[in-house]
Each structure stands twice: as C-alpha cells, then as structure tokens.
Write a structure and sequence with these properties.
There is one protein chain. This protein is α/β, with parallel strands linked by helices. The chain contains twelve helices and eleven strands. The strands form two sheets. A six-stranded mixed β-sheet has the order 4-3-2-1-10-11, covered by helices on one side. Strands 5-6-7-9-8 form a five-stranded mixed β-sheet, with no helix packed on it. The protein is elongated and about 95 Å long. The structure holds manganese (II) ion. Manganese (II) ion (MN) binds next to loops.
Length: 404
C-alpha cells in the first residue's frame, strides 16, 4: 500500500486529532481536513500492519516508544501553543487598556448639542490635509517657516476661525470634515526621527486631541460629519503603503481617525465608513459626490485634465463624481473639478532646499452649491499672529513634546 506520509508524522497528527478533535488538529497543525483524513487512512494502515507484527516483541516496544514520543511532542506543542495564546491575550489586554484609557481620559469629557438641519441646498467641506503634526521645522532650513505642535494648533485654530464665518455667510448648516492624509509623520527615515517632536504614539494622541477640538468647535455651529483617507507619510513600516486594505491600514491616519470615532461614539457626529483606506466617495445630502484621495498613487500631480483615469472606475460603476480633493505635494490648487490642499506644516528643508519649491501653510474650504458645482477657497495659514491656538499646552507638557 502506498502511504505518502511518514509513520511518525501521521501518528503525531492523528493522536492529537483523536484527543482534541479534527477541527482543533486542523488549526493546530495548519492542515486542511482532507490531509487529516488522508493521515488517518495512513495511520490506520500503519496500525493494522503493526498489529500483524504484534507477536514481535521488538515491534511492540517500538510501537510503545513511538506513542510515547508522540505524547512528548504533543506536550511540547501544547506548551508552545499556550505561550502564543498568552502573547495574544497580552496584546488584547494592552489594546483593551488603550481603549479604556482613551475613553476615561479628559478627552471624553464633552457634550455636543445636536443641530436641526434646515436644508439649505448648500453644504460646506472643510478639508484637513498634510498636517504632519509631529514635524519640527526650523526657520533657517525653510525660508523662515517654523513648525511644531504649538504652531500647528494655532494654524488649525486660525483655519476653523476663518472657516466658520464663511460657512455662515452661505447659510450652511452641514459641514463635512474631509481628511486627506499625512496627519502625522512616521519615522521610517533618520531625518524624520531627527525632525520629530515626540514619539509617534504621543503624536497620534495629540493629533487626536487637536482634531477632536476642531470637530467640537465646528459642531457648536454646524451639523458635522467626518470622512478620512490615509496618506503615505503616516504608514508604520516602509512597505506598508500597498493599496491592499491590511497593509494600508497599518497607518497612523487610520489609527487617529478610529481614535476620533471612538471618542465621539454616541455623540451626534457622523463618521462615514470608507470603502477602503485609499479612496472614499462621500455623497452629501444634496447629491454631490466628492472623491477623497491622498494623491500619491498618481505619478504626476492630479489636474482637471488628467482626472479621467481616476474617474473611469466610478463611471464604470455609474457613480458620477462631482469633485475630487487631494493633498500630498504640499501645494495648493483650486480647480474646476480637482482641488488640492497644501499642508499645515508649510515649507520644510526638503521642499525648500532639495526640491527648490516655495510653499505656504494653507488649507482648503469648499462651498458646495445646489447645482452641484462648488466654490473653492484657499485659506492662507502661514502667519498666526493674534491666534491663541487650541488648548494643548497641558498635554504637550504631559507628553514631553519638543518644540522649536
Ligand atoms: Mn504630506
């Protein structure tokens, strides 16, 4: 009889399966059920042939020894398994603690009043892009631009303070906060480690806290919803910016968005689920479909002319896209169809000295009209004289953040 598996192997697997059940054996050894069935046939055949030789005392001893070996192997395997379960449980505990800490911190002590939405036909979009919150920029390397958490908080405050009266001017009562990536920098490169204000975990918490205040302030005036796609600078590992969902969600932007979602659980703020982390279409109440992308998958900067390639997928699915917003290259451009946001951090050493770009800190606003067109507004945020910034000083001290 042809038995394509060694006696030791099938004995080990089948003894385990007999003790714990086939399903358990499948996951323990990583084998499909078919293989276990085949091993059982082989095991039975070996057993039968062993019984034939049972009068051979040596064979009996060998059989016993083999059984004992299997038992020993099983014991070792069970121990290894117990240890991986323990590690898994530890990770789960840490994750639980992280959520509990976040939920019991000062972060959650706030209320939001719900708004009655009187449909005005116009809606507002506040785009937050390329904030790079934890980047430290020194003026001598970047044509006079400085950046740290404190400046970030003041620029963000200026953005919201300028945006509110503009939205009100247009009688807007619904605002979408559209986040298009690069909220914080990861430190995959040495230069990023050097230019980083704090650890990434602390940066992610501070970023969460800043954005939480933006949402709360806007929600005092408007009914707010939030959508987000991930940027390339926030990926955890060098290889993690693949468009597959598992890899792309290994990203601080995804983490910060989900932190916010947890903090606003049960509050009248809508967090809109993305189809994936790379591109998201949000349909506003007036039927306006806006596509959010970070902008790094396209080789050249996206323009009204090159938009066809991006939109062909949506045309194929019958989804009309009325506007595309992106970020990524830190240069603002308001277009008829495509609008790109600059960054909150402004020029850094790389853009100034390597690329020879001129760049200013700014963010974009969109007023979406009844006829599904939009007005695009670029708000310059380079200078923050006279703005106090969001209240993060206590947190900055607690998190031991470096500043310029
Ligand atoms: Mn960026």
């Amino acid at each position: 009889m042809y038995l394509p598996v060694s006696k030791d192997r099938c004995t080990e697997v089948i003894l385990y399966a007999n003790e714990h059940g086939d399903e358990e054996a499948q996951s323990f050894f990583g084998l499909p059920l078919e293989t276990i069935t085949r091993y059982r046939r082989a095991f039975n055949a070996y057993e039968v042939s062993t019984i034939d030789e049972i009068d051979d005392e040596g064979a009996l001893v060998r059989l016993e020894a083999s059984k004992q070996k299997s038992t020993d192997v099983n014991r070792l395997l069970r121990k290894a398994n117990r240890e991986s379960y323990r590690l898994y449980n530890t990770l789960e505990t840490i994750y639980d603690e992280y959520i509990t800490t976040l939920k019991s911190s000062g972060f959650v002590d706030f209320t939001i009043k719900p708004h009655k939405v009187k449909y005005s036909g116009k809606q507002g979009i506040l785009q937050i892009s390329d904030t790079h919150f934890n980047e430290l920029i020194y003026p001598m390397e970047s044509n006079g631009n400085s950046y740290d958490f404190d400046i970030a908080s003041r620029r963000l405050k200026k953005f919201v303070s300028e945006a509110i009266p503009i939205f009100k001017l247009y009688n807007i009562d619904q605002v979408l906060i559209a986040i298009t990536g690069d909220l914080i920098n990861s430190d995959r490169r040495l230069s990023e480690k050097m230019a980083s204000a704090t650890s990434q975990v602390r940066a992610a918490l501070l970023a969460t806290y800043l954005l939480q205040q933006v949402i709360i302030e806007l929600s005092e005036h408007f009914s707010v919803s939030v959508a987000s796609v991930a940027g390339n600078e926030s990926r955890l590992g060098i290889d993690d910016f693949d468009s597959s969902d598992t890899l792309v969600s290994n990203n601080w932007d995804v983490m910060i968005y989900n932190n916010l979602r947890m903090l606003f659980e049960g509050k009248p703020i809508e967090f809109i689920d993305a189809i994936n982390q790379v591109q998201q279409v949000v349909t506003l109440d007036n039927g306006f479909n806006i596509l959010l992308i970070h902008g790094n998958y396209q080789k050249a900067p996206i323009s009204d002319k090159s938009i066809g390639t991006i939109l062909q997928n949506y045309i194929y699915k019958g989804v009309p896209i009325h506007a595309v917003i992106c970020g990524h290259i830190h240069s603002a451009s308001i277009g008829d169809m495509v609008s790109r946001s600059s960054s909150l951090c402004g020029a850094n050493a790389y853009s100034t000295n390597d690329l020879m770009f001129i760049s200013r800190a700014s963010q974009n606003l969109l007023i979406v009209n009844e006829d599904l067109g939009y007005h695009g507004i670029k708000l310059d945020l380079q200078n923050t004289d006279g703005y106090d910034g969001y209240n993060i000083i206590k947190e900055l001290e607690r998190y031991n953040v470096r500043s310029i």
